[in-house]
Amino acid sequence: MKTRIKHSGMTDSWSEILPLMVKLSSNKSIMSILRRIVVAAYVCYIWNERNKKIFTNMRRNCQELLSIITNIIRMKLVSLTVKESKQVDRVSREWQMSMNKTRNEEAIIEIWDDKTLKESNKKGKAPEEITKNKKTLDRIAEVPKLKERAEKEKAENRKKAEEEKAENRKKLMDLEHDIQLNKPKSVLDGYNRWMSRGGDCADPYAIRVDKDIFRQFDESYFAINATDIVELLTNQELECGILTLFEMSLYHLKGRSSLNRVGFLNPGLITSDACLFEKWDTLDYLTRALEGYDFYLAPYLQGRHYVLFIICPKHGVAFILNSSRGSSKNEETYRLAGLVESVVGGLRWEFPVVNRQPFDWECGFYVMKWMHDFVLKYQNDNFPNTVPWSDERPLENKELNAIIGAWFTLWRD
């Protein structure tokens, strides 16, 4: 591969420059130019867009010097002996091999940093130029160390990932006894299904999201990780993927039925952060998604807390179900509310009395319970004229276990 640089309508290759480098390597002034060309051209190659200032300055310097040197060659001011021509061929081959195989600064140092070049550096150059070139070459010399460091970091990351997998695998295996004793059969069956699936139980499970489920522009993907399953089975805060997959399961259960009146919003696209930092993308998504159904379920993550929006555009009303004690009853507290109204128009916002969680980890379980009951029952019970929630009691363990069992039971690959 030849490195070509265009200047003033001419194309100059390194094969044209090498003869002069060999022939005039003992000439101090010319050698200064040659060293600058080598450094400039290679810095352009190594750093390219990483440091635009270096790239721009070096490229301009290199182009100007190449033009001068090439004109000297073309004017035949330098003639080569047979011995010198062989030397040029050798250097050309070494240059070609170094660029094709290693493509790093060691090739330049190995080829050009011979005794003559070292001598030319010792004298005949201004101190500032020597310092400048030394710094540049020192920077080039750092590249192998940086590559070695990057490879070391990759190896450490791989080791860390394997250690995390081993830890998650152990956590999953240690759950078996407790699940057999304290969980319903539906949870045990779901646990065994996860543990016996193809591959490693600690590996993530990729989920493809059909664009029709959440009315997205295109299909998307997410993963259920081993840590997600551990959190689901041990009463911890739930990740967004758990709620997303549960919505997908409800869609496959009822979504295509002629009796179904419920649409689903993708919780990953409507979080509080998405509403703030990706407002226009969120509005675009809501415009597509809030169409075609009577009711829409939207698990909404604000900070670390899930609430459930039930949006009823045809009835001009929306409900916010929040399991936190002392939660706000002002829709302006929730960023999603304003974006929804931007799409469907003004709504009356209701905050019904719902189950209140005693601790800080249950909100995701409560939201799944409410969605499950609404899709399977309440959507066809004269809602929203009849509001089915009126009790603040916390959910019992058997109710939480039932929703975990439903999560596993409804999930279809």
UniProtKB/TrEMBL annotation:
Alphabetical UniProt keywords: Hydrolase, Protease
Query: Which SUPFAM superfamilies does the protein's record reference?
Result: Cysteine proteinases (SSF54001)
What InterPro entries does UniProt report for this protein, alphabetically? Papain-like_cys_pep_sf, Peptidase_C48_C
Which positions carry the signal peptide feature in this UniProt record? none
Instruction: Give the Ubiquitin-like protease family profile domain ranges.
Output: 222-374
Q: Where is this region: Disordered?
A: 146-168
UniProt GO MF annotations: cysteine-type peptidase activity
GO biological process, any: proteolysis
Q: Which family does it belong to?
A: Belongs to the peptidase C48 family.
Report the protein name in the record.
Ulp1 protease family, C-terminal catalytic domain-containing protein
What organism does the record attribute this protein to? Artemisia annua (Sweet wormwood)
